[in-house]
Specification:
- The chain is of the alpha/beta class.
- It has a domain of 175 residues: 3-Layer(aba) Sandwich (Rossmann fold).
- The radius of gyration is 18 Å and the shape is globular.
- The chain starts with 13 loop residues before the first helix and ends with a strand.
Amino acid sequence: MGGEVERDGLRFDPGISQQIEAMYTTPDVVEQRRVVRAALALRPGDRVLDVGVGPGLLAAEMASEVGPSGRICGIDISDSMLAIASTRANAPGGPGVELEAATVARIPHPVESFDVVVSTQVFEYVDDVPGALDEVRRVLRPAGRVVLLDTDWGSLVWRSGDDGRMARVLTAFEDHLADPHLPRTLADVLAKSGFTLTHQQVVPILNTGYGAHTYSAGLIDIVAAFVPGHGDVTAEEAQAWADDLRALGDGYFFSLNRYLFVASAL
């Protein structure tokens, strides 16, 4: 949910963009960025493109790592996300983050512009993943690296007082995704797109006991706002679903797996 793509009613307007920014400051996603940065292994002077830059937190952290001799560019199709990212565009000790409205289907940079391309929570929203990877390869230098992080929503375990309602809500929420199970096939697609896979890793999120400053607490609001009118879910049912989760208190349980892929361009 980085902000790159808008699908079927999930619009990254100012309201949802602010919700996502709040989710991305939770300890869950702070730890996720630490894992991503470790996989990136950036060096001073690296040129990096962040596809679906979202609220700009990762971009700002990367800017500090590449230093003033490096380059950080971020693209996103959401003006609201870009506005939030612009508040972080001048990280201490790094280059200014260059931000531009664009999609991964048409990256507005010349051939071999970057050493690294990173994209978190974006490719599961992309209809043409091979085409997007072709664009990534085009802007990468030979032997450049791509780092992708996406969710398999089939890994989700979320305690509920009504399992049938939970299943209906989660099925309806999948309407906003191009492929809710992308990680299962992403290694094959990367290989067929001319990349050599060098690293794979699971990045779990676990929330036990309800807490407002967690990834899943923020996700409740986004799901409840999206699902009415999708499948057979009504607004009343979505609200009852959300209320039930928050009422679980210490008995609350949420677990979700994201998958990290690192590959080099041939």
